[in-house]
Amino acid sequence: MRSPEKLDAIDWSSLYHAYGADGSDVPRWIRALYSDDAHRVDMVLGELFNSVLHQGSVYPATVAAVPFLAHGAVHAVHGRAQVLALLAGAGGHGPEPQPGDEEEGCAMVGAEVSGLLHLLGDGDPQVRRQMVRVARRATRATVPVAVRELTTVYERDPAAAVRAEALTVLTRLDADPRSAHRRPHDALTDSVAAVRAVAALELLEQAQAPYPADLVGILADAGGHSEFDVHRLEFFPGVGDTDSRVADVLAEDADAAVAVARSWIAQGDAEGRGSRRAMELSDTWRDRENDTIALLTAALPHEKSPWDLFELLGGIIKWLPGATHLDPALGDNLLAHGVEGASMAEQAQLALGRLGDERLLTVVPDPDPTALAALAARTHRPDHQRLALRHPAARPDELLTRLTPDSARTLWPDLKNLLHHRRTPTLARRFGDWGIRDPELLALLDKIARSDDTELATAAAVTAARLDATPNPALRLLERRLRDSGWSLKEAGRLGPAAAPLLPLVEGYLADGDEWTRMRAAEAHWRITGDASKAVPVLTALAGPHPVGVRALQTLLLIGPPFPPHLQPLLRHWATTERRQVSSSNLVFPGTELRPMDDQLRETARQMLAGQGRSNSAGGVGPPGGRAGL
Length: 630
Fold this sequence. Notes:
By secondary structure, the chain is mainly alpha-helical. Helix 8 packs parallel to helix 10 and helix 27 packs across helix 28. It contains 35 helices and no strands. Helix content is 62%, strand content 0%. The chain is elongated and about 85 Å long.
């Protein structure tokens, strides 16, 4: 370690940190650590964390600061635990340091461990805890003494968190296979819940799924205790954050995830730890929505921070459409959060709408328009649909995508009135999908097509052409936009054969642009020409378990069999695997798509396999006619 008197021996101006190439401010902050003013030290620590350990990143200035921070951890009056936290993080936040600054920082911290080990006996439990984390960086020469001191801490320290984390570090440092094996097994019966939970987690990480029921039971019982720190923002340098470790373990065993989530929620769902496990369940596994919604229903009455409540309600909104067995308590629990003035009221109302709970209309004083649209989409009742469409701030996208031509006819005056007063590209396009010809509508679309909003104008002009108006305005708008970018390729495809004059522009995007652009160009080319020969190779190359790949598969399904033979084993896997292949990324406040992308992948793969089978048995069938799914 080095005292502040030696700070000037370092050329700090040549060492960068998070906020610039000149680290000359670091010596001033380090000197201030020795202040008698606790508030000043706290402010300086904030500066150091933000600059030399910003979001866990290590910089050259961080490495150079290590021996000075080690001195400060021993001699400063205030903030020594935080100084040790800086030291622990100077080797990186992950289980292993990355080449470069992290490796150098890790080596520098390791060189200081022997001079700091006496802090394991400090009177402040937070200092002892952070020193346990610093000891994780012990190098080969200091490992034996570090293991000896940590063993004493593990066996005798009165603080639960210190003992638990000492066990975690010992598991990684102890080179004696007998004690390394015995210690976590013995800890499964420890009197401290956090120690039992850490031991169970360590052993589960070494086990294969399906996991032993006794280990799952211990983690489920002991891990819900507040002593076991699984906060998602709490990093354990050299180990990895505990929340992610738990998530990674439970991602391999769905039943274990349910057991742990259920127990942690029953114990109060501290920090949303059980709710997160419930949401990760359906993020990882297919067909577990009923379990997820049941768990989140149980978690909802527990007191939540605004962020935890936001995530919990978002999980309910996301997974509710796939659930088939619902606890009647869900609506009651949501209603408590959905009344005016409640935290996250709009989210709770949206969940009530997705649930189809009509108390959204009778109990909630002024329902959110997005929630009204969700209710109308769920109940299919014309009175609910009119209410959603007539709201002064109507946001009906979720309803619009579910209206059939017949239901649109029933609501025709309200839909046209909405287009008069709240013009959106989504609504303009839906009129083309419904295919209802109306002179008043065509006049309105013609007016909108002259709008300064080019996206809205293009959507209106294309819809008018689909309803047998002249395609010339749409062609002019599309040509202008396609010369600049590929954003209007989907609109060109909607125009169908009438877009034939645009083919040279469309073909230019088949091999030029990002994946979405090429996919939309391929789909547009097929819809315009009816010839799939240029589209299929592009779509096949893009097909896969990711959003653009799913859309490419859906277009291949519309084109029809025979499908490329090399896709067959992939289709079988996507159709049958129990694990999700596409990460769920639906927003909490959705637009129009309710089904998770992975569900779309599975259903598309199943349909393609079935269609291929019919094609083979019939001796080969060409692409079907029509333009379904515009």
